[in-house]
Write a structure and sequence with these properties.
This protein is α+β, with helices and mostly antiparallel strands. The chain has 3 helices and 5 strands. The chain binds guanosine-5'-monophosphate (5GP) and zinc ion.
């Protein structure tokens, strides 16, 4: 997808601080971290948002959660963490390529305002 910043990170065109990569997903540190650990997990294929998934993405979405759980263990987030997807304008999504925020290392309040 042209002009998509996360597609460019996935292809290596734009550098990112990668923490994990396989054939389906890539995970990298957020540029503007909101917690001591703030990793973005994205599919390599362009999906604009959670509103755009299809039945064919079921395995991919499960895989993203497996990667999140694995990375949380790797980052030693033994007291818990937050896995967040912002969808659309009301959800606060600013980058239109599906991504999940894995955040930890501090205690979060709920609801988040
Ligand atoms: P959203 O608000 O769409 O859920 O989250 C987008 C996230 O992407 C933000 O937390 C923002 O800091 C991060 N971000 C935006 N551009 C870049 C970039 O070029 N590199 C990295 N590593 N993170 C980015
Ligand atoms: Zn994209």
């Amino acid at each position: 997808m042209e002009n998509c910043i996360f597609c460019k990170i996935a292809s290596g065109e734009i550098p990112a601080n990668k923490v994990f990569e396989d054939d389906k997903v890539i995970a990298f540190n957020d540029l503007n971290p909101q917690a001591p650990v703030h990793i973005l997990i994205i599919p390599k294929k362009h999906i604009a948002s959670l509103a755009d998934i299809t039945e064919q993405d079921t395995e991919l979405l499960g895989h993203i959660q497996q990667v999140a759980s694995m990375l949380a263990k790797k980052m030693n987030l033994v007291d818990g963490y937050r896995l967040v997807n912002n969808c659309g304008i009301d959800g606060g999504q600013t980058v239109l390529h599906l991504h999940y925020h894995l955040m930890g290392g501090r205690t979060f309040a709920w609801p988040a305002g």
